Amino acid sequence: MSTLTAPTRDRVEMIVRSIIQKQMANGLGSNGRATPQIAQPQVVVNISARHCHLTQGDVDILFGPGYQLTSMKRLYQDTDFAANETVAVVGPRQRMIPGVRILGPCRKFSQVELAFTDAISLGIDVPVRLSGDIEGTPGCLLIGPKGSLVLAQGVIRAERHVHMGPTDASFYGVKHLDRMNMRVDSPCPSALEGLLVRVHPEWKLEVHIDTDEANCCDLPHASGVTLTKA
Amino acid sequence: MSTLTAPTRDRVEMIVRSIIQKQMANGLGSNGRATPQIAQPQVVVNISARHCHLTQGDVDILFGPGYQLTSMKRLYQDTDFAANETVAVVGPRQRMIPGVRILGPCRKFSQVELAFTDAISLGIDVPVRLSGDIEGTPGCLLIGPKGSLVLAQGVIRAERHVHMGPTDASFYGVKHLDRMNMRVDSPCPSALEGLLVRVHPEWKLEVHIDTDEANCCDLPHASGVTLTKA
User: Fold this and answer.
1) What is the least distance, in Å, from the CA of A182 to any CA of chain B?
2) How far apart are CA A159 and CA A127, in angstroms?
3) Which of A86, A16, A76, A72 is nearest to A48 (CA)?
4) CB-based contact (8 Å) between A216 and chain B?
5) What percent of chain A is modeled with pLDDT above 70?
6) Separation of alpha carbons A48 and B43, rounded Å
7) Phi then psi for A212, rounded to 5 degrees?
8) What is the model's pLDDT at position B14?
9) CA-CA distance, B140 to B90, in Å (whole number)?
10) C-alpha–C-alpha distance, residues A177 and B187, integer Å
């Protein structure tokens, strides 16, 4: 399914931008209320399909010594990119998910981010963790074109979160590591609660949810998204 | 994944019953509030993994003339059963999901219920529909051990819903085709809104959500479920 990721992400971004723009044109903010003074931030919701981050050492094993990841597409937070390269992920049920996209650049640790649907299929009992918090998490077998390796730990479901810069944080009245709720108005209306706020001077406002969460609330058919402090 | 369905469903039922029983022991209803007079119904939330319903005519084609489905397990609404028999579902991307469980007994129409994750993987753009409302929905290819057939329509994402009897409907102050909201307290807290109420004298109180919805809100690790009139 990871080949579907890029178009779905684009499509969702386009839809959400379109909703916001319509509301802005009507003098409404993304919460559907009038916003007389303060510029309403544009909420972009991107769906993270299963993917992994790798150390250069693990890239060497999977793709050959000294191999450098190549960029297929810059992500919305444009310090990162979706690589052309993919790996296969294998779990204890001897099932494989092929074509799991690598996100670059390389990191100091390798990490695989799966939806629960993926993890159940592979037989991996994944915890919900913030990216990078992988101590004590389960591992898996990774297979590349030039080699395979056993990742001792690093398989997680990424905790739903929202990236933003200081101006957006000020608009919403939140700070780094606060929580927010996001209500999605769609044919399957849902509220995702407790999104972790991550503030960094260079980040654009962007909600990251996984495929289970996006499919639960039918995000591609959403007519509105409301982000509020929890 | 459908081989996982039965244990997951049992596990969730066990967990939810356990939560309710603890709350009842504390003098609390499933909404966490004291319920001095009226007996609080026990909310059972069951996860519908992808499955299908078939006509006897389609069973004849897929399993051989006159073949009778056999019961693997009675469902919570015990007029229905999960059959030992499964089919493979194929969509326009030439991908197959094998082992899709058949629910019996046979019906007057054939219908395949998929999560969006499944449908996207197969390349089928499924609408959200109430079971049985299949006019104009997409079809698929079904493959059985003795034959295959093209289902002209009937592939849907089942709309989230709650079965109940008249006593439960009275308790919640709802009637047939009203809407309810369900909040799930878990490591991934979420509110699923607009569950369609379906009342029948013989039905037990039971919420039906699909695997995307259950995985979104991490239902297996839920510590509480609250059902309220929308």
Assistant:
1) 10
2) 9
3) A76
4) yes
5) 83
6) 32
7) -60, -45
8) 56
9) 6
10) 16
pLDDT tens profile B35-94 = 445 667 889 999 999 999 999 999 999 999 999 999 999 999 999 999 999 999 999 999
Burial of B25 (0-12, 13-18, 19+ CB in 10 A): exposed
The two three-digit tokens of residue A99, written as one number? 């074509």
Separation between Cα atoms, residue A46 and residue A225, nearest integer Å? 12
3-class SS string, B58-117: HHHHHHCCCCCCCEEEECCCCCCEEEEEEEEEECCCCCEEEEEEEEECCCCCCEEECCHH
Give the angle B12-B230-A15 at the CA atoms, nearest 5°.
85
Q: pTM for the full model?
A: 0.85
Cα dihedral value B27, B31, B35, B41, nearest 10: -100
Q: Which pLDDT belongs to residue B11? A: 55
CA nearest to B148, candidates B69, B54, B62: B62
Q: How many beta-carbon contacts under 8 Å exist across A and B?
A: 75
The answer for B 96-155 residues in CB contact with A (under 8 A) is 115-117, 120-121, 128
